[in-house]
From TrEMBL, chain A:
GO process annotations (BP): glycine betaine transport; transmembrane transport
Organism: Amnibacterium setariae
Protein name in UniProt: ABC transporter permease subunit
Compartments where found: Cell membrane; Membrane
Domain ABC transmembrane type-1 stretches: 15-201
Automatic annotation (TrEMBL), chain B:
Compositionally biased tracts (Polar residues): 293-305
Species whose genome carries this gene: Amnibacterium setariae
Keyword ATP-binding listed: yes
NADP among keywords: no
Matching Gene3D superfamilies: P-loop containing nucleotide triphosphate hydrolases (3.40.50.300)
Family to which the UniProt record says this protein belongs: Belongs to the ABC transporter superfamily.
This protein's UniProt keywords: ATP-binding, Nucleotide-binding, Transport
Enzyme superclass (EC): translocase
PANTHER family: OSMOPROTECTANT IMPORT ATP-BINDING PROTEIN OSMV
The name this protein goes by in its record: ABC-type quaternary amine transporter
Domain ABC transporter, chain residue ranges per copy: 3-238
EC number assigned by the record: 7.6.2.9
PROSITE patterns: ABC_TRANSPORTER_1 (PS00211), ABC_TRANSPORTER_2 (PS50893)
UniProtKB/TrEMBL annotation, chain C:
Cellular compartment(s): Cell membrane; Membrane
Predominant location: membrane
Entry annotated with the keyword Glycoprotein: no
Spans through the membrane: 33-55, 62-86, 92-113, 186-210
GO cellular component terms attached to this protein's record: plasma membrane
Species per Swiss-Prot/TrEMBL record: Amnibacterium setariae
Protein family membership: Belongs to the binding-protein-dependent transport system permease family.
Organism taxonomic ancestry: Bacteria, Bacillati, Actinomycetota, Actinomycetes, Micrococcales
Domain ABC transmembrane type-1, chain residue ranges per copy: 29-207
Classification via PROSITE patterns: ABC_TM1
Amino acid composition bias (Low complexity), ranges on this chain: 219-228
GO biological-process terms attached to the record: glycine betaine transport; transmembrane transport
Protein name according to UniProt: ABC transporter permease
């Protein structure tokens, strides 16, 4: 425990570095995936291409992607951007599927009746489809957030600062306290992100408060990993 | 193979009562129909016979044998069961679906398949469909396969849970006629569940009208029930009260047949004038079929028409 | 450029054999596959029975979801660091990979059984199938594609994560990546990344093909069981275990 108190600075700076790697990937991942997922929910061809592509990208192992990104983009190997881009790729790979499911879950009757009432295309999207897809989108972004934070620890293997540094350093020094500190920090950070995203969801979707998770959202939580359950079905 | 319900009750753990104190004898070799709106417990009662549901209280006897003493799996294998959406195994061909129970009970595959082909003939299905999958059949064809499967083990008892509920009216008519034919040929003890009173009257030798909670509103032959509804509920349910089944006679001018008109004003049929001209009074005296009870009540109005 | 050099590096037969106690591609690939296979066997031994139980009885689904969410939050690298500090050997590493592989396979198994039409199962029971026969002859064949989908997810997860053991001195294809990084040999590093990626894609593609063939005839290609489906039923089915048997 002494080690923890004497290294609070390091823990804090590593946490900030970790957050800096993850947040752009999570936010951009969401922003990119929503339109792609919407497209996939509208067109079977788009769905096939996007989900297959997502599957293939997700198949690439973490460290491989982190070292391949600079090779392909010509960036220096120690640039933290490599990790963020790799994380973004995973985020999109997961989130596009969730978003496609989310929009597909909007009741066709509701959409039809809104159109019949005179909603224009964009109005239909912003006022009907997006809010109704909200709960499943929220479930998807929670999955993305948790797995991104956990995955970002591999940055340590290529020497980029993150909470993963405590794992590699602690192991080399045979110092379990440091490794466990890193583990706890990652779990706490994931929990904090999850709570924050949950609160944002609550604020944006007041009608969804207190309702139990819809079965579709629950399914997204359980099986959101591409290539896993439901792939190609 | 008679079936007897003795003071049967079914209460679910959440406190809802599906059936309270139901007693009935289902005579052998005839069709008994349970009819009622949803929530009347008719399906629950049906499923008690093959122990898909066990009663909370009371007994069900098949030929004096208490079914609760029979191992459910063995019991179910000797009772045919046909359900609304056929419940066919989607990954097995038609012929394998029909042969399922015989194969389960140890009949050699080749023989079970051979017998199944015969059953396809029996229910009016082309043998060419034998190697199709259920998903490749129409709704009506699926139901026929369902009936063939129910008959495959040559059971003495056949349970049918709204088997024609999900097919379109024309196909339903066809299937009902097929079932009547099968019943004439095979004489199974059949228990049939439906919410459609017309279907009940058409198919049932004995019709049991149920109220909420499995309470018997009336038991009888279709003619008995129609002629003497036990109470307002029954009268309403069979449509007599609303006048749905009331026929009135309308003279179409001199020398013509008498037209019978139903409550909605649609022509329901003709009473033919054998000798050319028929007085309305003669037609009414001759009687106008089983559903014409109210004709006599309506003489005055008909005469005015 | 680096990419092409890396591919040349892989195609060079010299790099497939061991040189100066340095393991070659063949050996690393073998080690990677062996470790993955071990983990997969144990994963299946744990996840299949539990998943089939949850799917058949409908109990414990919430538990499985919680496990999946917790596991997702735990960083593999951290868990490997802790357990391999305790004992630097294969068993703790295999344990970590099993932990990663269980959630997808578990979800595949129970979601697969849950996706089987309740009416089909009800009819099978009404015909006189025993619970075991329902599982064997109805639920398993119909759930096979989803179960294999779960197996596919578990396999991928494991193959990807096994790369990390190189950081702890256990052989895997990750050795080329980390070794290349340490020696500033970016050609070797890229070659390692390509090797792992190709392996993952190959195995995934293979399993995808198996999955396609596992779909029973009669239910593939959207030909559902729903042709005659008109409306929903309110059949008092109860729970399979509390009634009848």
């Amino acid at each position: 425990m002494d080690w923890v108190w004497s290294h609070l600075d390091l823990i804090w700076s590593s946490t900030l570095a970790h957050v800096a790697l993850c947040v752009p990937a999570i936010v951009l991942g969401f922003v990119v995936s929503v339109p792609l997922g919407y497209w996939a929910s509208r067109s079977t061809a788009a769905r096939g291409v996007l989900l297959t592509l997502g599957n293939v990208l997700y198949t690439i192992p973490g460290i491989a992607l982190v070292v391949l990104v600079p090779v392909v983009l010509g960036l220096p190997i120690l640039n933290p951007l490599n990790v963020t881009i790799a994380l973004l790729i995973y985020a999109v790979a997961i989130m596009v599927r969730s978003a496609a499911d989310a929009f597909a879950s909007v009741d066709a009757d509701v959409r039809g009746s809104a159109r019949a009432q005179g909603f224009s295309g964009p109005q239909l999207f912003w006022r009907v489809e997006l809010p109704l897809a909200g709960p499943v989108l929220l479930a998807g972004i929670r999955v993305v957030s948790v797995s991104t934070i956990s995955l970002a620890t591999v940055a340590a293997l290529v020497g980029i600062p993150s909470l993963g540094g405590f794992f590699t350093d602690g192991f080399q020094r045979s110092f379990a306290t440091e490794v466990v500190t890193g583990l706890v920090a990652v779990l706490v950070l994931a929990a904090v992100f999850d709570v924050v995203i949950g609160l944002i969801g609550r604020a944006l979707m007041p009608w969804n408060r207190g309702r139990r998770l819809t079965s579709r959202a629950a399914k997204t939580l359980a099986t959101a990993v591409p290539g896993g359950v439901g792939a190609n079905l | 193979m008679s079936i007897e319900f003795r003071h049967v009750r079914k209460t679910y753990p959440d406190g809802t009562t599906a059936v309270e104190d139901f007693s009935l004898v289902v005579p052998s070799h005839s069709t008994t129909v349970f009819v009622g709106s949803s929530g009347c417990g008719k399906t629950t009662l049906l499923r008690m016979i093959n122990r898909m549901v066990d009663p909370s209280d009371g007994q069900i006897l098949i030929d004096e044998e208490d079914v609760s003493r029979v191992e459910p799996v063995a019991l179910r294998r000797r009772i045919g069961y046909v359900m609304q959406n056929s419940g066919l195994l989607p990954h097995r061909t038609v012929i394998d679906n029909v042969a399922t129970v015989p194969i389960l009970t140890g009949t050699p595959k080749a023989k079970a398949r051979q017998d199944a082909l015969g059953l396809l003939d029996r229910v009016g299905l082309d043998r060419a469909l034998a190697n199709r999958y259920p998903g490749q059949l129409s709704g009506g064809q699926q139901q026929r396969v369902g009936v063939a499967r129910g008959l495959a083990a040559d059971p003495n008892i056949l349970l049918m849970d709204e088997p024609f509920g999900a097919v379109d009216p024309i196909v339903r008519d066809e299937l009902q006629q097929e079932l009547l034919r099968l019943q004439r040929e095979l004489g199974k003890t059949t228990v049939f569940v439906t919410h459609d009173i017309d279907e009940a009257f058409l198919l049932g030798t004995q019709v049991v009208i149920l109220k909420r909670g499995g309470v018997v509103a009336q038991i009888g032959t279709p003619a008995e029930i129609l002629a003497n509804p036990a109470d307002d509920f029954v009268a309403d349910f069979v449509g007599a009260k609303r006048g749905k089944r009331r026929l009135t006679a309308e003279e179409r001018g001199a020398g013509d047949d008498v037209l019978l008109v139903d409550a909605a004003g649609y022509p329901a049929g003709l009473i033919a004038a054998p000798g050319g001209r028929l007085e309305l009074a003669d037609a009414l005296a001759a009687g106008a079929g089983p559903k014409s009870r109210s004709v006599s009540n309506k003489t005055d109005q008909a005469g005015d028409a | 450029m680096l990419f092409l050099q890396a591919i040349q590096w892989i195609l060079d037969p010299e790099h497939w054999a061991a040189v100066n106690f340095q393991a070659g591609i063949a050996e690393e690939l073998g080690a990677h596959l062996w470790l993955s296979f071990l983990a997969l066997v144990f994963t299946a031994a744990v996840a299949l029975p539990v998943g089939l139980y949850i799917g058949h009885t409908g109990r414990g689904r919430g538990f499985a979801i919680v496990v999946a969410n917790v596991v997702r939050a735990v960083p593999t690298l951290g868990l490997l660091s802790v357990l391999l500090l305790v004992s630097l050997a294969l068993p703790p590493a295999v344990f970590v990979f099993v932990l990663l592989g269980v959630p997808p396979l578990l979800a595949g198994a129970y979601a697969g059984l849950e996706a089987v039409d309740r009416q089909t199962i009800d009819a099978s029971r009404a015909m006189g199938m025993t619970e075991w026969q329902i599982l064997r002859r109805v639920e398993l064949p119909l759930a096979a594609p989803l179960i294999l989908g779960g197996l596919r997810g578990a396999t991928l997860q494991i193959i990807a994560s096994v790369t990390l053991v190189s950081n702890f001195g256990i052989n895997s294809l990750g050795d080329f990546i980390l070794g290349g990084l340490a020696a500033n040999d970016y050609v070797q590093m890229t070659a390692g990344a390509i090797l792992v990626t190709v392996l993952a894609l190959l195995v995934d593609g293979l399993l995808a093909v198996v999955q396609r063939f596992a779909a029973p005839r009669g239910v593939s290609r959207g030909r559902g069981t729903t042709t005659a489906r008109g409306r929903r039923l309110s059949v008092p089915t109860g729970t399979p275990v509390s009634e009848g048997n």
